[in-house]
Structures are given as structure tokens and as C-alpha cells.
């Protein structure tokens, strides 16, 4: 049976993070530095995470401060955790990979012929004007970063991205421009959908349809095994989206649809998380 789980907590009123900051020595000897830590690395938010084979990769975000505010600096740090064997949650062995672009509120996805690529798209650059490059690959086999020589869609942040593993296609939806104002009434919001064919580094724009969702950001997009992407919640216009409205994009047939959910509906929310179960 297919379905998905919507995590309850999104943006909360607390300004404190529960993760403890630590200072640890780094050991030289390869392109990776190993940290035998007694806690998680520095607190961060606005980062991305993806599972590629046996490793969990956490990249970017804002790090260094223990309160939620945008004065924190973006980081290009890549954290890697091997989850193929048991480890102590109080003392995980983190590995730090090569530095990448310093971005936050981006997406991190899997791609490539062998599902070996970590694909970073968009995000807040912290630069004015934003840099032209918004698409980056990290090869988890060769252990290096590269910038594909293709023209990406307009740079954005707080969008969503899901990967169809069968052909390593990434579907990117919504978001707001990198340079967008924090004032909601003056924001530009996107509802365009793009398919990135990572095996040949090619973008395909999906045109508007009858049931294309309204422009939004801070939503979730979840891809199930049947190839359908479910878009839930977020912020559209100047209000949060009703969780009864479930937008579904069929990545195989290329069509949007709209379903209305019933039952005990969750409250409206944004900046939440969702995962699929088959």
C-alpha cells in the first residue's frame, strides 16, 4: 500500500536549537577529514540531506549560531555519515567532504547513471546580485565538485525537488527567487515545474496545465513508487495552503491532478517535512 507521512512540526515559536555545538580536532591524510564526535556537528538549519547508497549526506545551510536568525553565515560544508552499520547516536563518526558552494534553503538530490551524484540546486547565496551558477554536482565516487555547463532555470530557494531513480530525473517545483524580499506582500512566488535529466544534464520545462498548483514555497513534494509526486501545504500568496488540497503530478504521463483529502485534516503548515512509504 502506498502512502506518505507528513511530519507535524514545521516552523515553531522557539528560537533555540537543541543540538550542542562542539569543537573537534581534524585529522589530515586524505580528501576527507574524519570527526569522532561526542555530539552532532555545529547546529544548522536550511540545509539539505540525501541518502546515496550507504551514506547519508548533509550539505550546506546556515551554521554557527544557536538561535534561528538569518544573520548566521551560509556554509558549504559537506557532512557524511555511513549508516550501513550500527553506531552510537551519542558518538557518530562524521566525515567532512570537500567544501562546496555556500548556500542555504536549497535542495539536495540524487542523480547520475549510477545514482552516484549529489545534485545541489538553487538556494540563498548570500550575494548581491546572486551568482549565475545555481546547479552543482558532487560525484560521490570521484569525490569532487563540478558545475554542469548548462543554463539552469531562474535561481530560487525554498522550492522542492524529488528524484525518479529509474532514469535519474529530478523534478523541481515552486519556490521564491534568491533575492526575494522577506516581506510577503512584495514576494515573487513560482509555480513552474522543471525536469532535470541528470544523466545527460538537460532541463525540460513543464508547461502550465488546468490543475497546476498556485505559486508557492515552503511546501513539500513527495514521490511515490508509482511515479506520482504529491505536493502538500506551503505558503501561497499571503496565506498558508489548506492541507485538504493535494496536488499530484504524474511524472510518467506528465499530468497534474487535484484531489481533496477528507478525514481529520492536519492544520495548515509550511516549512514542514514529508516522506513516502510504499
UniProtKB/TrEMBL annotation:
Native species: Gigaspora rosea
Swiss-Prot/TrEMBL keywords: Kelch repeat, Repeat
InterPro entries: Kelch-typ_b-propeller
Pfam families reported for this sequence: Kelch_KLHDC2_KLHL20_DRC7
Name of protein: Galactose oxidase
Top-rank taxon, per record: Eukaryota
Amino acid at each position: 500500500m502506498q502512502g506518505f507521512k507528513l511530519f507535524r512540526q514545521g516552523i515553531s515559536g522557539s528560537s533555540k536549537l537543541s543540538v550542542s555545538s562542539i569543537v573537534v580536532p581534524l585529522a589530515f591524510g586524505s580528501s576527507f577529514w574524519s570527526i569522532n564526535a561526542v555530539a552532532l556537528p555545529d547546529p544548522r538549519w536550511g540545509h539539505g540531506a540525501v541518502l546515496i547508497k550507504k551514506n547519508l549526506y548533509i550539505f550546506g545551510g546556515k551554521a554557527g549560531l544557536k538561535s534561528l536568525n538569518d544573520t548566521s553565515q551560509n556554509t558549504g560544508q559537506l557532512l557524511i555519515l555511513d549508516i550501513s552499520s550500527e553506531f552510537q547516536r551519542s558518538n557518530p563518526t562524521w566525515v567532512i567532504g570537500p567544501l562546496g558552494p555556500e548556500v542555504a534553503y536549497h535542495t539536495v538530490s540524487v542523480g547520475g547513471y549510477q545514482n552516484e551524484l549529489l545534485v545541489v540546486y538553487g538556494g540563498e547565496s548570500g550575494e548581491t546580485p546572486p551568482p549565475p551558477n545555481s546547479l552543482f554536482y558532487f560525484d560521490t565516487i570521484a569525490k569532487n565538485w563540478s558545475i554542469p555547463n548548462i543554463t539552469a532555470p531562474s535561481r530560487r530557494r525554498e522550492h522542492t525537488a524529488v528524484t525518479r531513480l529509474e532514469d535519474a530525473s529530478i523534478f523541481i517545483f515552486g519556490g521564491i527567487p534568491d533575492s526575494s524580499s522577506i516581506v510577503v506582500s512584495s514576494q515573487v512566488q513560482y509555480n513552474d515545474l522543471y525536469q532535470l535529466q541528470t544523466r545527460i544534464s538537460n532541463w525540460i520545462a513543464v508547461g502550465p496545465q488546468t490543475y497546476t498548483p498556485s505559486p508557492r514555497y515552503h511546501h513539500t513534494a513527495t514521490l511515490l513508487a508509482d511515479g506520482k509526486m504529491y505536493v502538500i501545504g506551503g505558503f501561497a500568496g499571503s496565506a498558508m495552503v489548506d492541507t485538504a488540497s493535494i496536488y499530484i503530478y504524474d511524472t510518467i504521463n506528465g499530468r497534474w491532478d487535484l484531489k481533496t483529502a477528507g478525514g481529520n485534516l492536519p492544520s495548515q503548515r509550511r516549512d514542514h517535512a514529508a516522506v513516502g512509504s510504499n
